[in-house]
Design brief:
CATH superfamily: Leucine Aminopeptidase, subunit E, domain 1
Number of strands: 7
Mean pLDDT: 93
Order of helices and strands: EEHHEEHEHEHE
Largest sheet: 7 strands, mixed
Strand content: 15-25%
Structural class: alpha/beta
Strand order of the largest sheet: 3-4-2-5-6-1-7
CATH topology: Leucine Aminopeptidase, subunit E, domain 1
CATH architecture: 3-Layer(aba) Sandwich
Length: 191
Amino acid sequence: MKIILHKNDISTIKSDVLIGPVDGNICAFGGCAAAISLRKALPCETPQERMGLFEEIEDEILCHKPIPFGNAAIIDVDEYGLPWNNLLIISALPHHVNGQIFGLDKCESILAKAIKNGIELALREGSNSVATTLIGDSYRMPPEFSIRAMLSGFKEHQDKPMNINWCFLDDDKMRIANQGCETFGFNHKII
């Protein structure tokens, strides 16, 4: 495995797979960074056409509901002209509902497991490159915890032939990820 840290919007990064995190109980994709980038990358002439295609993809995601926390599903999006052939939906973003509260440790554990299982699924499907943003740092976990969780999930497949294109828009978060890659012993570089 090689991790390539990009200081770039993920919508411009060509990979076999884009990782899209969801709460597997509801499989709503709309607000995460990956969803925003996917919407932006749709090659459409009008906002209405873009919204229509995005809704088609969202409907395909909903067909996989529910996805148990820590698990994944893969969706073929090749027909949409995106920089990725597949969308890897990982159930990594739990919401506090029905009396369930997810603490920091539990959120970190769920994300690490979802990354591990998602990469495993992508490898089984023949993928050799994955594009991802930093997942779970908006309100579930501080960036350091999200980065550690993702690196823990990647670590399970460190000996596999996979390139991880990890995109950041924030210099500090990218610096923390770079330090984490060094700590975990990953082959990595910054672009």
